[in-house]
Amino acid sequence: MSEVRLEGVAKSFGSVEVIPPLDLRVEPGEFCVLVGPSGCGKSTLLRLIAGLETPSAGRIVIGGRDVTHADPARRDLAMVFQSYALYPHMTVAQNMEFGLEMAGLPKAQRRDKVAAAARALRLDGLLDRKPRALSGGQRQRVAIGRAIVREPRVFLFDEPLSNLDAELRVDMRLELARLHRSLEATMIFVTHDQVEAMTLADRIVVLRAGRIEQKGSPGALYADPDNLFVAGFLGTPRMNLLPARVSGREERRALVDVPALGLTALPVRLREPRAALPAEVVVGLRPEAFGEGPLRVRLLPAMIENLGASRYLYTEGERQSAVVAELPRGVPALPGETVDIPLQADGAMLFAPEGPRL
Amino acid sequence: MTAAWRLLLGAGIVFFVLLIGLPFWWVVTGSFKVPQEIIARTPTFIPRSFTLQHYDLLLSASAYGTYLLNSLLVAAASTLLTLLLAVPAAYAFFRIEFRGRATLYRLILLAYAFPSIVVLVPLFATFARLGLVDTRLALVLVNTAFALPFAIWMLRAFFAQIPPEIEEAARLDGGPPLVVLWRILLPLIAPGLGAVAIFAFVSAWTEYVFASVLILTDALRTLPVGFAGIIGQYQVNWGLLLAGATLAILPVVALFALIGRWFVTGLTEGAVK
């Protein structure tokens, strides 16, 4: 277990600044997920921590030791790559043993550690196989095994689940969560998949264009996003972000008209009660806000998505302007027929059109 | 694939096999024929006689054995030296970023812009000053120098095919650069090493111009030069010629058999994805 601290770390490739100076502290034993759209710099950040890239500025401290310019091997960390990066000419056992051999461990001890890791990852019968004779899920487990045999204090994962099919991905997610509990190591996990982030993380760091948009527990980020980007990024289906007009304010709330829902003077709680309000705002409403509540809205479904446990209604329009609503159980709905559904707007949020939460 | 297409492909393969194989058949079978049959007015495709007299004469009455040994020594040493120098050079060109890398990389191929005959005289003068004329080492150096640019060029392409994460994983596993190169990267470019080895060996094996000028003593001559001497001495002894040619093919065939299995495709299969 080690703390990982980034102090003013920046990275440029030539004249392109990928990561502007950034501070981040990952607590010892924390499962920290870096999430963001592709190209947001999350993989670069991970590679900086791993030592595969050198920062253009700033300091990287792992376990109290400045490792900014230390060799990757001297950082007491292990990394699992998106592509697994197994040594194709070596058997599973040799793959897992290589790091231990480099660390100078005697043969007998290496054998024991590999056997233990193989048992934990259900790779027992596969130790003599070459990677090409393994399935995708098995290769993934070998890659994880190669990381855990070395008992590092920090694990880095670079989108390790993205090459797996959906079912296997859920399995591996659970396996990783279990592994984190049993190893009690610090884990930093990069993904663009917000479901992985929500389910695995102790803390999520949302990145955009190399900047931290917000960090916090999955629950906090979901319930209380700082800006439009985070609000729109976490949660499936995505939060409804509807244009609205401020018509008044009362105490800690703003009153807004939302034409897309046919609502007038909808009270929305403000974060900063005394903040100045622009005339045009954006109202954020999660799809699950629909279904029960004191308000009623009439929506014309263009499409109904039935997931079994829940159903979602989509109105006509672009993805940005269409309304997505979770349909309450027992309410019949067909595309093209207007439905009248209840709405609980207590959780609604207000954003300035440029992004920040109001 | 349609039947007609298959037939066409099959015919194509047969054509090329015959085109390449027939001269070899002619040489090898001819070396076992008695002299009368070799020069018979109607050539025989399948030999009617069998004799080892040409081989006997070749190995007893000429210095063929010495030439063969010289050639083996020179070609093997050239191959080894080429690999020994090309691997680190190619790896450096691939891995290390330095000023002028791209230019230098293109420049090394310039070595092939000059016909060897052009550099022959200056090279002879240089070697004379270094006291290397009339040594097998001179041939090894020349052969290596000419094989290197292509070898570097080729190996770099093989290095570039290895997914970078494999090397990064090995670095994170604590492997020092030379260990990573030896244990992880070289096994993955085995087909490239094999190709380079064969290229270096064959070009040294068949090299004539430098071997004929730089070597003065008969006991140091390599096969192509020494063999040329055998043929021309009094008259053309066809049987001797064919036996010599047959023996000269053997080491190359053996090398192909040995290295051929390195040419397995999909060596990196299973590494990523």
Task: Throw out a few tags for this protein.
heterodimer; A: 358 residues; alpha+beta; six-stranded mixed sheet; five-stranded antiparallel sheet; 8 helices; 20 strands; 23% helix; globular; B: 273 residues; mainly alpha; 0% strand
In short:
The complex is a heterodimer of chains A (358) and B (273). Chain A is an alpha+beta fold and 358 residues long.
What are the SSEs and their pairings?
The complex is a heterodimer of chains A (358) and B (273).
Chain A: E1 4-13, E2 16-26, E3 31-35, H1 42-50, E4 57-62, E5 65-66, E6 77-80, H2 92-102, H3 107-120, H4 136-148, E7 154-158, H5 166-183, E8 186-191, H6 194-200, E9 203-208, E10 211-216, H7 218-223, H8 228-233, E11 240-250, E12 253-258, E13 263-269, E14 280-285, E15 290-299, E16 301-306, E17 311-315, E18 324-327, E19 339-343, E20 349-351
Parallel strand pairs in A: 3-8, 3-9, 6-7, 7-8
Antiparallel strand pairs in A: 1-2, 1-4, 4-5, 9-10, 11-12, 11-14, 12-13, 14-20, 15-19, 16-17, 17-18
Chain B: H1 3-30, H2 35-38, H3 53-61, H4 64-95, H5 101-108, H6 116-130, H7 136-161, H8 164-172, H9 177-188, H10 190-206, H11 209-214, H12 223-232, H13 238-259
Biggest interface in this structure? Answer: A-B, 32 and 25 residues
Order of the strands making up the biggest sheet of chain A: 6-7-8-3-9-10
Order of helices and strands of chain A: EEEHEEEHHHEHEHEEHHEEEEEEEEEE
Mean pLDDT of chain A: 89
Distance between the termini of chain A: 38 Å
Q: What's the overall geometry of chain A?
A: globular
